[in-house]
Amino acid sequence: MTELLTSAQMRQIEQAAIDSGAVTGLELMERAGAGVVEAILAEWPELGQGAHRAVVLCGPGNNGGDGFVVARLLQERGWDVGVFLYGDAEKLPPDARVNYELWRKMGAVSSWEDLNAEQTTADLFIDAVFGTGLTRPLPEELGRELIMTATPDKTTTKVVAVDMPSGLCADSGKMLGGGGDFSDLVVSFHSAKVGHYLDRSYQRCNSLVVKDIGLDHVFDESQVHLVDQARLSDDSFPGISKRKFDHKYTHGHALILSGGFGKTGAARLAARGALRIGAGLVTLGVPGAAQMEVATRITALMLTRVEDASNLAEVLEDRRLNALCLGPGMGVERARDLVPVALAARHGPRVVLDADALTAYADCPETLFAMLHANCVLTPHGGEFARLFPDIAERLNKEPTRGPAYSKVDATRDAAARAGCVVLFKGPDTVIAHPSGACSINAAVYDREAPWLATAGSGDVLAGFITGLLARGFAPKQAAETGAWLHVEAARSFGPGLVAEDLPEELPKVFRRLGL
Ligand SMILES: NC(=O)C1=CN([C@@H]2O[C@H](COP(=O)(O)OP(=O)(O)OC[C@H]3O[C@@H](n4cnc5c(N)ncnc54)[C@H](O)[C@@H]3O)[C@@H](O)[C@H]2O)[C@@H](O)CC1
Ligand SMILES: [K+]
């Protein structure tokens, strides 16, 4: 289980460790600085050989303190190190001050104004200006200077951010004011911060390394989790495997409602996804005019005629239909007709609403919220999210003026609480929230990038994956997390050239690799 921390949670963990007497702030700072150097040498082994030149930019808080440690450790390795301080040495907090003094015994601290002349010759820039303590936008001139430091000749200068690229909010990944420009490497401590996985953060950082600084991992309900294999293998994968004596009815029966003639592709993609992920049976609910179109294009999938609301009500008399998917390619008219029936089904099937099933309620989201129940999952992309939750989206998209800024995690949690069901807010940073506040991020960033997922129909397959897992008996949040994780795994496994059809077909390979 990988927890992602807010700056307040990180401070609390550090403070508790310091208060318990287990460690001092100074020791933590030393480990943090040593961790940065270790990460640099691991990332660029060539920097471990011979002497190089580094420029270390230190800020007015403990992030700056880490910078002084890094400067000292690099100089001890024979490097030529230039140190610049933003702020007043007299006002440094105590641990940072100690490290400032230690550095002063070894070298000079230059004033910020001298930065330009020095910077062009460095092999390495260390951005230790602000970390988790950034609370207000960077002063404009500082932002400009940070951008300049990050844009020397890229072929020779590596930019390393300590904890956070300065200017980015550790809770939201948003930029507070200017600055916070590109970093080749970000080295954080103990646990990654929520902001590393959201918004601008991953767009601005090439790679993220988290170094252990000897603090205990404390888990609590309020933390955001990163959806990762370790977490999923605890509780989800056994649910994907099929046991020897199971039969198809053990694995649920999903119903995917399609659109009309010429509009059935999206539902067929979702259905294929539901089947491949292991639903026992998958039926497409198709209007009469599209029946031929669908019948000629499916094999293992089944088909039933669902013309209108009363038809759907009849079909749902079959209590074995335990997971429904509405939205992909459905058309908003048909969605308005069928969604209320699906949500009112008496035997309580689990329901995924995507695409047109969300857009259909753009004018009256409250009508939808009144019908939703705890067994639903909404899977909006940014546009659909803004249509259903306009005020939340507006708050999220507003330029922040102070930190911690309102984040995609906050927005998805608020949306889930309002909707009363699980909301999966798509993106390279897919956030999944339960109305209780439990929240996770499925990240397709850093070493898990999956840019080929940006292709028509990939969202339809995701809706299908989640529906299939719901049919298998997964709880809504767990289905959303596992479906989203496998979606990225399938994309990464297929690689370049991926089209949506490939995603379900790649799952067997992913499952084999997972040892299922
Ligand atoms: N607390 C600890 O025990 C540890 C902290 N560590 C480091 O300490 C960092 C957190 O330190 P701090 O809490 O001191 O915070 P920072 O060093 O991130 O920055 C806080 C300082 O910047 C000022 N500030 C905030 N926004 C500003 C703005 N826009 N313009 C000008 N000044 C601004 C604040 O008033 C404060 O003086 C972490 O990111 C990490 O790098 C590590 O050394 C590990 C141990
Ligand atoms: K920093």
Walk me through the structure.
The protein has helices at 7-19, 25-43, 62-76, 94-104, 115-119, 140-149, 200-204, 229-235, 237-240, 265-276, 291-295, 309-315, 332-344, 355-359, 365-371, 382-388, 390-397, 408-419, 458-471, 476-494, 502-513; strands spanning 2-4, 53-58, 80-85, 109-111, 124-128, 158-162, 183-189, 205-211, 224-226, 253-257, 281-286, 302-305, 321-326, 350-353, 376-378, 422-425, 429-433, 439-443. With 516 residues, the chain is α/β, with parallel strands linked by helices. It folds into 2 domains: 2-220, YjeF N-terminal domain (Rossmann fold), CATH 3.40.50.10260; 229-238 and 247-397 and 408-513, Ribokinase (UDP-N-acetylmuramoyl-L-alanine:D-glutamate ligase, 3-Layer(aba) Sandwich). The strands form 2 sheets. The chain has an 11-stranded mixed beta sheet, with helices on both faces. It has a 7-stranded parallel beta sheet with strand order 4-3-2-5-6-7-8. Strand 11, helix 11 and strand 12 (302-305) form a beta-alpha-beta unit. Helix 17 (390-397) packs antiparallel against helix 18 (408-419) and helix 20 (476-494) crosses helix 21 (502-513). The protein is elongated, with a radius of gyration of 26 Å. Bound molecules: ligand NAX and potassium ion (K). Ligand NAX binds at residues 14, 25, 28-29, 32, 59-66, 93, 130-139, 162-163, 189. Potassium ion is lined by residues 63, 127-131, 161-164, 166.
Bound molecules: ligand NAX, potassium ion
Low-confidence stretches: none
List how many beta strands DSSP finds. 18
Main sheet: strands, sense, barrel: 11 strands, mixed
Spell out the CATH superfamily of the largest domain. Answer: Ribokinase
Average pLDDT reading: 93
| CATH topology name of the largest domain | UDP-N-acetylmuramoyl-L-alanine:D-glutamate ligase
EC number: 4.2.1.136, 5.1.99.6
GO molecular function, one term: ADP-dependent NAD(P)H-hydrate dehydratase activity
Organism: Mameliella alba
Pfam family, one: Carb_kinase
